[in-house]
Amino acid sequence: MSASQTPPGTPAALGDDDPTLLVKIFGKDRPGITAGLFDTLAAYAVDVIDIEQIVTRGRITLCVLVTAPAGGPGVEGGLRSTVHSWAESLRLQAEIISGRGDNRPRGTGRSHVTVLGHPLTAESTAAIAARITGTGGNIDRIFRLAKYPVTAVEFAVSGAETEALRTALATESAALGVDVAVVAAGLQRRAQRLVVMDVDSTLIQDEVIELFAAHAGCEAEVAEVTARAMRGELDFEQSLHARVALLAGLDASVAEKVRAEVRLTPGARTLIRTLKQLGYQVGVVSGGFTQVTDDLRERLGLDFASANTLEIVDGKLTGRVTGEIVDRAGKARLLRRFAAEAGVPLSQTVAIGDGANDLDMLNAAGLGVAFNAKPVVREAAHTAVNVPFLDTVLYLLGITREEVEAANTHDHE
């Protein structure tokens, strides 16, 4: 059979001028509405072209696009009358609109725009929608991803290039106090991914070197150097050596106490557990120390972990680090290394961090997420999350709260 031939009995493709009917049903939801509508339409031998249904707070909106019934105006009139009678019997409202052809094709340049609000106000939603329109984009669909711990909604947008849309919405989101992520639509969004995150003040709530410093009695001095480094005011490697030097002579057994003091960021376990359930690979890179990250890797089931290592001689910290320094450039190198080992293209990686030394990694990743970050990091990253729940990053990947809960329920079975 040639490519131009079709099997016998195959219906002809719907043409742009072929008559169609849009049947809209709305009212109080109950079981059987969808089946009942199609039972009613079946009597007129129409073909289904498109269906869209949504239930919001117990109210259903069901839209069905079908071919007009054969037989002329009289048959179509019978269909209309029958559908309206059926709807009235269930105390539903029906609207039937005549037209021609299918839905118009979506524009090129398709993106997913995820908006996180705590709360999500009407004002901010209006501004986001207006900015999408202003870039030439059309909102094709909106649905809610989550209602807690934040309200997360996703806009399916066409007609605007992803980068232009991301740039336009970044400014708007900062002014409105909401978080917005823009990613290109396509199969790659559902492909296996690698998620790599910073540790201090990202995966955990603490700065590990400050925990060590507290045991050495020099936390004030270390905290000041750390703050300057995170703001980008000091070279990271120089500041690392300066801080670690303050720990010289500390008993190595203090590492066990520090590990016990580490506090995971709210939502960290949920984020990692859900990603693993979905087949993602997860890693951490840290300007901190392997004395803590190795423990986190084991506890959380991480696939990759890399950090600096505190040198120990005769059971004491020497005040030096050994091996390759994990600094700003090092984190980006490790992201690429992990991606190669995982067999994941760099475009399919997600990096999460909060400090200036995370910037190279965030920019190298397919999606860089600034998590409760310093202003310089928020401005440079692809998107920012400014709520204290690490699992909200899942919504930026198009994962719904229901899917998160289902993954975690399965994990505990």
Describe the structure in brief.
The chain is of the alpha/beta class. The chain has helices at 33-42, 73-89, 122-134, 162-176, 208-216, 219-230, 236-245, 254-261, 268-277, 290-300, 328-342, 359-364, 375-380, 393-396, 401-411; strands at residues 19-28, 48-56, 59-67, 93-100, 111-117, 138-146, 151-158, 179-184, 194-197, 281-289, 304-313, 316-322, 349-353, 367-371, 383-385.
Name its key features:
4-stranded antiparallel sheet, alpha/beta, 413 residues, 7-stranded mixed sheet, 15 strands
- The string of secondary-structure elements, in order, is EHEEHEEHEEHEEHHHHHEHEEHEHEHEHH
Q: What value does the average pLDDT take?
A: 91
> Helical proportion?
25-40%
Uncertain segments? none
> β content, as a range?
25-35%
What does this structure look like?
38% of the residues lie in helices and 26% in strands. By secondary structure, the chain is an alpha/beta fold. The strands form 3 sheets. It has a 7-stranded mixed sheet with strand order 12-11-10-9-13-14-15, with helices on both faces. A hairpin with a 2-residue loop joins strand 11 and strand 12. Helix 1 (33-42) packs antiparallel against helix 2. 39% of the residues are buried. The model has no long low-confidence stretch (mean pLDDT 91).
